[in-house]
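Collaborator request, handled under Task 6.
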Amino acid sequence: MAYKNPILNEIYYEFFFEKGISLNEQFDIANFLKNDGFEKMEHSPVIENYDSDGSIPIRIRLWRNNKRELFQIFSNRIAFNYIPFNVDGGKYEGWQSFLSKCLDIQNKFKSICNISGKQISLCYIDKREISDDSFKLGKYINCNSRYVPEFFEDACLDSDLIIGNGRLDKDNNMQLRIGFNNISSNKYILHINTLFNSLDSFKSDIESALNGLHGKCVGLFEEIITDHMRNIVMGGTL
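Structure tokens returned to the collaborator:
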């Protein structure tokens, strides 16, 4: 579904390894990608996780100069973050652009380090600043759906609702986050994150699996937004 004023701010993809990779392998991947347009690189410890030998693993981050593409290398996964609009203005690019770049990076990664995966995940991050003197969540989010209870219909104070379905490492897990913050008297920032995981289907056809996860993210988003959100905030469909 294409809207005149889309609120999609970021898409990210994660590929989880069957087995962890070494620090040397992380830098081998980073150096290859650095020569392929990801020119800015930094690394830092990931202090919430520990490798099997007790050492603190690192995360390597690489950006393209367009500031729209970020590639991250962990000891247990890779991640690709993409901003679907040009930060300096210009054309809005969505799913097909992301999918093409994601598959290209995935293929390059496999050519360097042919590691089997156990899971992939796809997340859509939607965000919009809203001016509304009589804000309530139910004006923008369907609070009579199977995901958002009616209790939140009149919510107007800072709120954060996070729900999930399935275990992250054992099921095709789904996660939904809806939150909003009142940043001034009548201004609010509304966040909607939709995330789906795949444990099996990606192993035979990663493109089809990604398209399937994309369909689930879009379907969930469409199910939870109201017509006011769809037609007024996002300006209706193209």
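The cover message to the collaborator said: "Residues 82 and 112 are 22 Å apart (CA to CA). The first strand starts at residue 8 and ends at 17. Please let us know whether this matches your experimental observations."
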